[in-house]
Amino acid sequence: MNRLAFLRSMAACxxxxxxxxAADLPDTVARVKPSVVIVGTFRATDAPRFRLRGTGFVxxxxxxxxxxxxxxxxxxxxxxxxxxxxxxxxxDKQLSLRQATVLETDRVHxxxxxxxxxxxxxxxxxxxxxxVREGQSIAFIGFPIGGVLGFSPVTHRGIVSxxxxxxxxAPNSRQLTDAAIRGARAGSFDxxxxxxxxxxxxxxxxxxxxxxxxxxxVVNMVLVKxxxxxxxxxxxxxxxxxxxxFISELLERTAKK
Length: 257
What we know:
Number of helices: 4
Structural class: alpha+beta
Radius of gyration: 20 Å
CATH superfamily of the domain at 129-255: Trypsin-like serine proteases
CATH topology of the domain at 129-255: Thrombin, subunit H
Helix content: 10-25%
Distance between the termini: 64 Å
């Protein structure tokens, strides 16, 4: 085989591989979607009674949900008659409301483990995030913009553009948040920077390998300009995810209780 024929053969193989990977994503999404849930609060006197706070996903025994800690309501917005709930989409595509209980929290890595009532939900497998490499194809599913687009799960695809430190120096003391101070005290840890744009409502959703559907992280924060509203008109295109090894560590602590 001469050099030109060899190069043509290599190019054809690369095109085939790209097309094959793209064709696999719909199958991966179909497997992952039943495990993605809506995390929110329910209060009979509110209008609407259900308020979306973020995304979560089911792991383990089918009654365990992972989401971000900041998705939970704080003490100032959690009256006695408000319940923490999760909405699950069943095989009939209808949403059912499940009561949720906090089992374990990790404020440093912004993670929480919830237990939900009712029948078990299909669970996602968790991959060791130490295997993730920059440039790896990933996808995430969630409910962006707080349900403005409806309560149908939305998929975004991209790559891990960088593996970088989570604790970044603040330009000045006024920009030091409680979370940043806690992170600095606990020590820096690596997070995944993504080239896919996440929005408010995506927080807590699964970041998964585009081919296998295995969870490699949790969508955590969006770099926005000034306000939540500006994320709609001026999205930065930069999003972040907490590596899945912190999920595994949190689940281990939960199991020991």
